[in-house]
């Protein structure tokens, strides 16, 4: 009885701490978003010199102002979010909460679109997408209004250019400024281990589409930015300015190199190319390093800090994933199943827990040192505490090589494997549904057995997928 009362009191303390932290996180997040709405306005322009004078430091100079305003709030949310998630790390609670999510909030989680360029999206995602587009339109409109109000025929004549050329120059600059807003959010969805995604109820694999959306926005705006300045330099007979590399001002050549790297990534990221030539997409996407380095050269370190929050979280996540991927995982068993299917079983610590539908990235250096392939975890962390399993279907070049290696009857001790993950939702969100449809192929049905609570659904439909009628014999 005393132990029960102690646990109940401890649980209440955790709930109070979570409520306080949640309030702080929401307040800081709203303040951070409010800053973005204020940045284009004349009010912020008047405040900026005063803010810069008060936050100027010996070591960072005016770069410290951008770090304080744009970077510190996000890092504060990420650190405090880790504490919040740790306090709420209760699998049983997650199952109950997910199963009891009903009422008017469930409408916003329903699917709004299935087909189209956006893919499968919910009403919540559409709402936030429209709000983000509204932020971009607001910023562009306010920037344009303030800038054009300062451009007059007299001021253009003093600069030795025509009125339309002055406005084109201003419009190109504004497209770059609005593109920087998208760039500031670009890296948040791909920071797999960041606490920001779980705080928003997102998973790493589900957030990839947000990265794709933002990437298209970034490159559309930056391409418009570059074209405006190309036309401007040609029209004003200053084509030599495109090769200018200034150490104190904006470096045009660095911006062009950054844009070319971005266009190469953009061209290979469209689904028609990505699906057919994934290796081309994968290796070309490493040009993001060139893109970012020359972006900093283009604008300078001070202004580049505007994209630092998401990039910093991404770099930390990337470094931690690099450390994890360096360790070789013990492969305890490899089974060759019918229909050219392979099951890989790895030993794991009993303390490693994961939810259904979690995924891991697998790398086999003897096949490819660079390729990492995602697979759904096929085992239950509650039923099989010391084992983690994945099933690989022999379809692509990588999986076919793996299948042939295991058919050769070579000892599995010689098969070196690296694993990254697992990644998955903090709770089983599908448990809130009264009807569940499971599409599965033979062995893959097992990954849905990670919790017996799945059968709390009023009705569960199983659709068994096979590659052909011959497999049913």
UniProtKB/TrEMBL annotation:
<feature type="transmembrane region" description="Helical">
    <location>
        <begin position="285"/>
        <end position="316"/>
    </location>
</feature>
<dbReference type="InterPro" id="IPR050369">
    <property type="entry name" value="RBOH/FRE"/>
</dbReference>
<keyword id="KW-0812">Transmembrane</keyword>
<dbReference type="Pfam" id="PF01794">
    <property type="entry name" value="Ferric_reduct"/>
</dbReference>
<keyword id="KW-0472">Membrane</keyword>
<feature type="transmembrane region" description="Helical">
    <location>
        <begin position="210"/>
        <end position="232"/>
    </location>
</feature>
<dbReference type="InterPro" id="IPR017927">
    <property type="entry name" value="FAD-bd_FR_type"/>
</dbReference>
<feature type="transmembrane region" description="Helical">
    <location>
        <begin position="59"/>
        <end position="87"/>
    </location>
</feature>
<dbReference type="GO" id="GO:0000293">
    <property type="term" value="F:ferric-chelate reductase activity"/>
</dbReference>
<keyword id="KW-0560">Oxidoreductase</keyword>
<dbReference type="GO" id="GO:0005886">
    <property type="term" value="C:plasma membrane"/>
</dbReference>
<dbReference type="Pfam" id="PF08022">
    <property type="entry name" value="FAD_binding_8"/>
</dbReference>
<feature type="transmembrane region" description="Helical">
    <location>
        <begin position="129"/>
        <end position="148"/>
    </location>
</feature>
<feature type="transmembrane region" description="Helical">
    <location>
        <begin position="253"/>
        <end position="273"/>
    </location>
</feature>
<protein>
    <recommendedName>
        <fullName>FAD-binding FR-type domain-containing protein</fullName>
    </recommendedName>
</protein>
<feature type="transmembrane region" description="Helical">
    <location>
        <begin position="20"/>
        <end position="39"/>
    </location>
</feature>
<feature type="transmembrane region" description="Helical">
    <location>
        <begin position="168"/>
        <end position="190"/>
    </location>
</feature>
<dbReference type="InterPro" id="IPR013130">
    <property type="entry name" value="Fe3_Rdtase_TM_dom"/>
</dbReference>
<feature type="domain" description="FAD-binding FR-type">
    <location>
        <begin position="324"/>
        <end position="429"/>
    </location>
</feature>
<keyword id="KW-1133">Transmembrane helix</keyword>
<dbReference type="InterPro" id="IPR013112">
    <property type="entry name" value="FAD-bd_8"/>
</dbReference>
